[in-house]
Protein: Probable cytochrome c oxidase subunit 5C-3
Amino acid sequence: MFDWFSEQSRVSKEMAGHKIAHATLKGPSVVKELVIGLALGLAAGGLWKMHHWNEQRKTRAFYDLLEKSEIGVVVAEE
Structure:
């Protein structure tokens, strides 16, 4: 005699055996995040320092020209 329910469970078990390659999701890697954060922090800090040095250079040049009387900050009277 054919048992329909046992045949269905056998088929479903066989079908469940097929595996599909999925990306395995893991938790965050602490070391990887630290390295990435350190690299991004150093890059941003370097850019900020370069900007600061450039502004300092412009300010120093302005005061040097002001001291040499090549420029003035008072509007000349007509």
Observations:
- The mean pLDDT is 82.
- Residues 11 and 32 are 44 Å apart (CA to CA).
- DSSP finds two helices and no strands in the chain.
